[in-house]
Design brief:
The complex is a heterodimer of chains A (333) and B (130). Chain A is an alpha/beta fold. Chain A is built from eleven helices and 15 strands. In chain B, 82% of the residues lie in helices and 0% in strands. Classes of the chains: A alpha/beta (333), B mainly alpha (130).
Chain lengths: 333, 130
């Protein structure tokens, strides 16, 4: 492990992403990426009494799926990094409590999946053989906590994004055949003074651009080095803003850049307004779609930058701004 | 019996009622689409505006003009509160200004609690369609 420039870490023996799993809810099951997910649900409760119980079940079953797919026994996993959007990360805590694997709770809002992989990769370089990284989100539990009760039935403004229901999980291992995590660029907290909780894409885009440019400066790479640069959940509005910010800084990312929140839903057919969001947006799109592209070598080098809005319902009711964060991992086969 | 349906309804009143209620709702929709106001804030603004206009006697003209088109939307609730408070003062003095509003709105408040409870027993919140 060595530090490059201001905030990038390069791995001397890059950890392999051994396997990934994803489970998604009803809306995502009707989206363009449906065929890539391990399991698609047609009921947002999944037979449970509450959305919170359903979200815990989704992350639990996703983790069970990745463990059985990877062939690594649960007791061979040295530790796990997981988090979600609900208060005190209860989806992860409740969903993973029966696993008996040392657990680090992670909160990075919607950047949690990549933050977990950053920490997991460092753990592999430091001491571990196998590390589990997981995250989840649920449209209904997130609306209830961050916006309005669904019983209220209020309208969603055009800038709002749709929290992805689902979970993504990955197992990182020390000795593998790739895809490898070669670099990580942990992001700084960036606050440009956006206050609108219904326009998270605009709040997070500056953080995305900050980490993107830091990654290029630290590694000496440029956008064309990667087959794809993928952001976590900026949505359609945030994607356009990001392209503009990067361009103003001298980086043209228009041709190979896309966003998980744009990819997961069909904007016109599904009426999701500005696209997908939530921890599971990046988690499921990477675990379902992008990982398979890497395995099949349709993509060989990707830069995954998950974005998070560091806000809660109290601060947004008190009129505070929404600080953003973005963590990047460079993955190569 | 031969009923002349054309004369059963006051068609002009129905039209005025529909247009007035519709315009009030359009104002709400514009506020949702064009401002950062949350639905809860818009609700409070509508009720407060109805109370102020009601207290000044302006909203009464709208009620006379459009009937339920003006009393059913949220602003009508505010108008009702103000009207009740004024009547309360006329009947029982200063205390009436505190009790009159809620008295006048009692039917609406109790019905909201009752039907809200009823709905919670027979239905379950679901994921939005859009």
């Amino acid at each position: 492990m060595e530090k490059l420039g201001k905030q990038t870490i390069k791995f001397n023996t890059p950890p392999t992403i051994l396997d990934c799993a994803s489970i998604v809810g009803p809306k995502e099951s009707q989206g363009p990426l449906a065929k890539y997910f391990d399991q698609t649900l047609d009921d947002e409760f999944w037979g449970e009494k509450t959305w919170e119980k359903a979200e815990s079940k989704i992350i639990k079953e996703t983790v069970n799926t990745v463990i059985s797919k990877s062939g690594v026994a649960a007791n061979e996993i040295d530790c796990m990094f997981a988090g979600d959007l609900l208060n005190q990360c209860i989806s992860s805590c409740f969903g993973l409590r029966e696993l008996s694997i040392p657990f680090f709770g992670v909160f990075g809002a919607c950047s949690t999946f990549v933050e977990s992989m950053c920490l997991g990769a460092m753990a592999i370089e430091a001491f571990a053989n196998n590390v589990l990284c997981a995250t989840s989100s649920h449209f209904c539990s997130a609306e209830k906590q961050f916006r309005f009760p669904l019983e209220l039935g209020n309208q969603r403004p055009p800038t709002s994004q749709w929290t992805v229901t689902g979970s993504g999980a990955a197992i990182l291992t020390k000795d593998g055949q790739g895809p490898y995590i070669t670099h990580i660029t942990p992001g700084k907290i960036v606050d440009m003074g956006i206050k609108d909780a219904n326009n998270m894409g605009a709040a997070m885009a500056p953080a995305f651009a900050d980490t993107l440019i830091a990654h290029f400066l630290d590694t000496g790479r440029n956008p064309s080095y990667y087959d794809a640069i993928i952001s976590g959940d900026l949505g359609h509005i945030g994607k356009e803003i990001s392209i503009d910010i990067a361009k103003s800084q001298g980086y043209n990312i228009k041709s190979n850049y896309n966003d998980c929140g744009v990819l997961i839903f069909d904007k016109n057919a599904q009426d999701t307004h500005s696209g997908g969001s939530g921890c599971a947006c990046c988690g499921t799109v990477f675990s379902g779609y992008l990982f398979k592209q890497l395995k099949e070598r349709k993509m060989k080098k990707i830069l995954l930058i998950a974005t998070g809005a560091l806000t809660n319902s109290t601060t947004s009711q008190q009129g505070e701004t929404i600080p953003g964060i973005a963590h990047a991992i460079s993955i190569e086969v | 019996m031969d009923v002349n349906w054309a004369n059963v309804f006051d068609w002009m009143m129905l039209l005025k009622c529909f247009v007035t209620g519709g315009v009030i709702c359009i104002i709400g929709q514009i506020l949702i689409d064009k401002t950062k106001l949350t639905p809860a804030k818009i609700l409070v603004i509508f009720v407060t505006a109805g109370a102020v206009l009601g207290g000044l006697g302006i909203y009464q003209y709208l009620v006379d003009f459009a009937g339920a088109g003006a009393t059913v939307p949220l602003t009508g609730f505010g108008y009702n509160l103000a009207k009740g408070a004024i009547e309360g003062v006329q009947q029982s003095g200063l205390v009436g200004s505190f009790t009159g509003g809620v008295k006048a709105a009692a039917g609406g408040i109790a019905a909201a609690v009752f039907f809200g409870y009823l709905a919670s027993l027979i239905s379950k919140p679901k994921m939005k369609k859009q």
